[in-house]
Amino acid sequence: MSEIMKSLESAVKVLGSRAALRPEIGIILGTGLSSLAEKIEVETSIPYGEIPGFPVSTVEGHAGNLVLGRISGRPVAVFQGRFHLYEGYSPQQIAFPIRALKAFGVNVLLESNAAGGLNPAYQVGDLVLITDHINLQGFNPLVGPNDENIGPRFPDMSEPYDRLLLDLARQTALREGIQLREGVYVGVLGPNLETRAEYRFLRMIGADLVGMSTVPEVIAAVHAGMRVFGVSVVTDRCLPDALKPVTFDEILAAAGKAEPSLTRLFLKLIESI
Known about the structure:
Shape: globular
Number of domains: 1
InterPro entries: Nucleoside_phosphorylase_d (IPR000845), Nucleoside_phosphorylase_sf (IPR035994), Pur_Nuc_Pase_Ino/Guo-sp (IPR011270), Purine_phosphorylase (IPR011268)
Number of helices: 6
Largest sheet: 5 strands, mixed, barrel
Pathway: Purine metabolism; purine nucleoside salvage
Function: The purine nucleoside phosphorylases catalyze the phosphorolytic breakdown of the N-glycosidic bond in the beta-(deoxy)ribonucleoside molecules, with the formation of the corresponding free purine bases and pentose-1-phosphate.
Keywords: Glycosyltransferase, Transferase
Strand content: 15-25%
EC number: 2.4.2.1
Structural class: alpha/beta
Radius of gyration: 18 Å
Oligomer: single chain
Helix content: 25-40%
Order of helices and strands: HEEEEHEEHEHEHEH
Number of strands: 9
Strand order of the largest sheet: 5-8-7-6-9
CATH architecture: 3-Layer(aba) Sandwich
């Protein structure tokens, strides 16, 4: 057995000892997007530091717990906060919790994040369905020896965001009266926000949203054979010719305002998957 498989086995053993249920759906709650956790019929909440192989979240707005329970009767595992490359973690460390959830039985991953809006049509507080992504982080969690028990050496990424889940989200948003835009997310390293010239470049190469997370998680999930869905909350407008300084507190506040709509969308999605 490879070292990574041994580590995953240890993590799954701890998760199994803390909860009787086996989650089907994994959910990652990004910066300032924690209220969905309040809708869970909680079986247990495990601090990341108590799960072998898990990093510890260091960013404000990320509670740092894995919550196991049920939403609308469906068994779920909810990450209250995520891990970022700019915190000093390796791509492999960021991928590990995703792989652990897959080993624990999760087959669908729902992602949320806070992102800057590069598309001039976006407003602060908009929800944007991620239809594709661009990886400009300079890292990939699949670099290094590959274990075929986890996934193939060269996974296809032609549709990283599941087409059926995208269609289901569109139908759900229409039915619920939730405005849902669509766009391409570009992942950058961070932690600084971008310059005017960088925003121009990112827009020129086809990005509608910019953020510092999500991409390594999605790559790891697709590699492991999971179905992936993602939504960004636009927390600031990144328009080079009308750029205004933004603080982290303002980003948190913008994410908070969008939480009710995002929570409702996720709840209805979970009911329908």
